């Protein structure tokens, strides 16, 4: 009888899945949307240019990260999503976030990946009692190992920055993984040049900002900025506007201030100097960088960098706090706005919902206990997704960059 009972339960589950599939087809959902029922959406982990990332729980209890992208937000650029999917499915490396699954609805794409729960690079470091140059060597080696794996396969990440470097688990010996391949590109050949603006303010290479055509060397420039910041607690390029930043990076003015660098080895400075070369052809390649004497760790010092890194993180948290307040105000303003219907209502982050917290940042307000209309929830979701796209400062910087590039070109 026990076997009959198990078979009956299995049949019930099967019938339930068939019913869900039938209803999905009836509602015009793509076949892969049936996978949606396998994941229970949890807290919001972050918002990016094209979508949000949410934590989700699989039927077996495993936690994963789900990147949700609005199709209308990438209309005409759907290939970008397919490129990311193709990339992730073909990458297997201990220091690269692992692809799990993907599916789509009528109006969204879902990309499921391994969930990293150990925190961002700088957040994690600041939990330590001490962080030395020798520790920094290990961090850079892990990142560079991942970058070299990509470059050997003609893949350019194009958005290397501390926020995309995550620890898999809270354990002390956890691996560091490279995440967010949204703007990564697979080159048709090793000499192919990309021309679109890509990357993040402060980490993008000069050739990207000048639209001169770029390739693998842009990742090495970004790694140079990360390494510099990791060793002193501030960026090598501190201009507040994009035109000034372009000028600063193009001139290669990298200064190692004695007050903060006196305890750091000359090999570390040499390593950074060979990465932050304005001419991409003069930068170390990933394979060359792996052979650099600094990465052997023999000349690295025991100089404690943690006090400076904590100051850097405090400034970053303040900036994030301002962004959260701005986002909260947008959500509250949208609460009663009417908008078009959207499917997948459990994807929509509610005001006051348990989002991933930013230490030192104010909480996102807005009556979590109040019931919102479906249209209002849809509007809120859209605003979260488009938060950075609509950011006026980013738009202004882009316009300034275009003017600067035009001006530089006309002066030649």
Automatic annotation (TrEMBL):
Keywords, alphabetical: ATP-binding, Calmodulin-binding, Kinase, Nucleotide-binding, Phosphoprotein, Serine/threonine-protein kinase, Signal, Transferase
Residues covered by the Protein kinase domain: 39-295
Residues making up the signal peptide according to the UniProt record: 1-28
Statement: the UniProt record of this protein carries the keyword Isomerase: no
Annotated segments matching region Disordered: 338-372, 391-412
GO molecular function (one): calmodulin binding
Record-listed ATP binding positions: 71
Enzyme Commission number(s) from the entry: 2.7.11.17
Compositional bias per record (Polar residues), positions renumbered to this chain: 394-412
SMART domains, per the entry: S_TKc
InterPro entries xref list: Kinase-like_dom_sf, Prot_kinase_dom, Protein_kinase_ATP_BS, Ser/Thr_kinase_AS
Residues in coiled coil: none
Family matches, as PROSITE patterns: PROTEIN_KINASE_ATP (PS00107), PROTEIN_KINASE_DOM (PS50011), PROTEIN_KINASE_ST (PS00108)
Top-level taxon in the UniProt lineage: Eukaryota
Catalytic reaction annotation: L-threonyl-[protein] + ATP = O-phospho-L-threonyl-[protein] + ADP + H(+); L-seryl-[protein] + ATP = O-phospho-L-seryl-[protein] + ADP + H(+)
Family: Belongs to the protein kinase superfamily. CAMK Ser/Thr protein kinase family. CaMK subfamily.
The protein's name: calcium/calmodulin-dependent protein kinase
Native species: Drechslerella stenobrocha 248
């Amino acid at each position: 009888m026990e076997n009959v009972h198990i078979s009956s339960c299995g049949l019930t589950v099967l019938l339930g899945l068939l019913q869900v599939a039938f209803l999905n087809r009836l509602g015009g959902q793509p076949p892969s949307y049936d996978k949606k029922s396998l994941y229970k959406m949890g807290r919001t982990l972050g918002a990016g240019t094209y979508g949000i990332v949410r934590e989700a729980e699989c039927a077996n209890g495993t936690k994963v990260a789900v990147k949700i992208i609005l199709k209308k937000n990438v209309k005409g650029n759907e290939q970008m999503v397919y490129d990311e999917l193709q990339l992730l499915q073909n990458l297997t490396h201990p220091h690269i976030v692992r692809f799990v699954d993907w599916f789509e609805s009528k109006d969204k794409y879902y990309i499921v990946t391994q969930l990293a729960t150990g925190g961002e690079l700088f957040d994690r470091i600041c939990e330590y009692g001490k962080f030395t140059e020798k520790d920094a060597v290990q961090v850079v080696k892990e990142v560079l190992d991942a970058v070299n794996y990509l470059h050997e396969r003609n893949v350019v990440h194009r958005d290397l920055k501390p926020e995309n470097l995550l620890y898999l688990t809270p354990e002390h010996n956890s691996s560091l993984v490279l995440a967010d391949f949204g703007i990564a590109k697979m080159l048709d050949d090793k000499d192919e040049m990309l021309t679109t603006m890509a990357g993040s303010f402060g980490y993008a290479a000069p050739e990207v900002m000048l639209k001169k055509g770029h390739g693998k060397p842009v990742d090495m420039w970004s790694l140079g900025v990360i390494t510099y910041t990791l060793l002193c607690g501030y960026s090598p390029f501190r201009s507040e506007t994009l035109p000034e930043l372009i000028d600063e990076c193009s001139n290669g003015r990298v200064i190692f201030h004695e007050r903060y660098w006196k305890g750091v080895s000359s090999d570390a400075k040499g390593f950074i100097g060979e990465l932050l070369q304005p001419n991409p052809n003069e930068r170390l390649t990933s394979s060359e960088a792996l052979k650099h004497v600094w990465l052997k760790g023999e000349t690295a010092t025991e100089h404690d960098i943690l006090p400076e890194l904590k100051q850097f993180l405090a400034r970053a948290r303040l900036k994030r706090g301002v962004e959260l307040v701005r986002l909260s105000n947008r959500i509250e303003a949208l609460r009663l706005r009417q908008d078009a219907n959207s499917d997948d209502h459990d994807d929509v982050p509610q005001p006051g919902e348990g989002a991933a917290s930013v230490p030192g940042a104010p909480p996102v307000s807005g009556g979590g206990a109040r019931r919102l209309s479906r249209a209002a929830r849809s509007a809120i979701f859209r605003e979260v997704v488009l938060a950075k796209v609509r950011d006026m400062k980013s738009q202004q910087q882009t316009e300034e960059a275009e003017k600067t590039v035009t001006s530089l070109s006309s002066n030649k």
